[in-house]
Amino acid sequence: MDEKNSTNLSLRGWLSFALSPAIKTRHRRELSELIPCSTTLDALLQHAIDPHSIDLSKLAIEVDTIADVEPFLSRHLSHKATQQRCEQALSWAFEDRQHHIVSLASEHYPDTLAMVPDAPPILYVRGQPQALQEPLIAIVGSRKATPGGRAQAYEVAADLAKAGVGTVSGLAKGIDAAAHTGSLEAKAPTVAVAATAPDKVYPAAHRELAAKIAGSGAVISEFPLGSSLRPGCFPRRNRIISGLSLAVLVVEATIPSGTLTTALHALNQGREVMAMPGSVKNPQVTGCHTLIREGGILITGADDILAAVEAKLRPLLRTQIRPTVKGPVGEDHVETASQSPSLTQDAQELLALLGFNPMTIDELVEASALKTAQVTGALMQLELKGFVSTEGTGRYVRC
To answer: Which residues contact 371 (CB under 8 A, 6 or more apart)?
Structure first.
């Protein structure tokens, strides 16, 4: 689990904050607005569990604020029923190596989601918590998707994988399942945000899919163990899907549609909203056409998505460490293509074409005879691995 020690006050404090029946969503939102620093709130939560653990006088917070907040937290977080629910959650986390509890103060809490005003204080994670930090594109759509719609979602997810970009969706039938599967089969991380408690899978037919996702990605939920699935769970789930993403792509959606609530959350969170068009005679794409008409980005493939989020994605690529291997006398040197069997054939072909004279994507497409999506994906992989860099003019050069 994320914090290995069951006595960890930080984790217990955040769990109590999330699980106390007396602390409602509005209380958590008000506290987050009053105390926007998660480190300060973390200290107050720990103090509420154990008053001897933290000296509140050393916190960078006004005395009046402490006087208003501390009694409320201490009264409700230390309540016996709340602590029993904490123990149940901690037991779940310790029963399986794939089970994790990630608090808002944890290093594994996704940065993109932490910036959302109503970010959940706790995430129950089945799988790999580090997958939450990967660059992700949300792909959502109809449960009753057409075969063509499912194929589009699968293909886009698989093509994004070539660029080192994962997906996030809702584990539902139709478009969600196709997107998850596309990422899985392309060996890219995918995150499923569940509308159920972490000890349940909905729909039940997706238990095997959920297990596969947890193997290399993550299945996450904000809902406590044993909680019932209610209609209101889906809109709450959708805000996490958009919050985890750099952008939201809608593939087939009717009007009205639960999928469109994800797009609305995305707009409110400052995310790009995208949609794939279809036949005007297909009722399954009326929601997509409405989004495009109202300013959503028209998407025909993964290369359109990568172009739209390039400004957000590029800083993430810059943080990647250039891989090195030890030379014969212990000196570091840059990894070569032949030493990186993980490079796709497309990436190896482009690397062979690229010299130290900058080339544009169009020039590489013409020189390689690869499609634009293939070139874009391969360049992203090469940049992630430190083989190429880009100039401000949009030209790529070998490092």
So the answer is: 365
Identify which of 80, 11, 72 has the alpha carbon closest to the alpha carbon of residue 46. Answer: 11
pLDDT tens across the length of the chain (399 residues): 443 433 488 899 999 999 998 888 888 888 888 887 888 888 889 988 888 888 887 777 777 778 888 888 988 898 899 999 999 999 999 999 999 999 998 989 999 999 998 899 999 999 999 999 999 999 999 999 999 999 999 999 999 998 899 999 999 999 999 999 999 999 999 999 999 999 999 999 999 999 999 999 999 999 999 999 998 999 999 999 999 999 999 999 998 888 999 999 999 999 999 999 998 888 999 999 999 999 999 999 999 999 999 888 877 764 442 332 323 333 333 333 433 446 788 888 888 887 666 788 888 888 888 888 888 878 877 877 777 877 656 778 776
Tally of domains in the chain: 3
| 256: preceding bond cis by omega (within 30 degrees) | yes
The verdict on 244 and 388 lying in the same domain is: no
Read off the pTM: 0.77
Quote the domain boundaries for residue 350. Answer: 321-398
CB 237 within 8 A of CB 269: no
Cis amide bond preceding 203, omega within 30: yes
Residues 267 and 379 in one domain: no
Start-to-end CA span in the chain (Å) = 39
CA–CA distances in Å: residue 204 to residues 190, 209, 211, 379: 19, 10, 12, 39
Same domain, 276 and 137: yes
Do residues 350 and 368 lie in contact, with contact meaning Cβ atoms separated by under 8 Å?
Answer: yes
Regarding whether 227 and 186 lie in a shared domain, the answer is: yes
Asked whether residue 279 falls in the same domain as residue 149, the answer is: yes
Residues 206 and 281 in one domain: yes
C-beta separation of 120 from 240 below 8 A: yes
Quick check: is 108 in a domain?
Answer: no
- Are 289 and 168 within one domain? yes
Backbone angles phi, psi at 201, to 5 degrees: -125, 130
Look up residue 213 and give its two tokens.
């996702």
Q: Read off the tokens for 321.
A: 């460490």
Q: Would 1 be classed as within a structural domain?
A: no
Q: Show the tokens assigned to 371.
A: 């499609």
Is residue 43 included in any domain, yes or no?
A: yes
Placement of tokens 């629910």 in the chain: 85
Q: What is the CATH number of the domain that holds 351?
A: 1.10.10.10
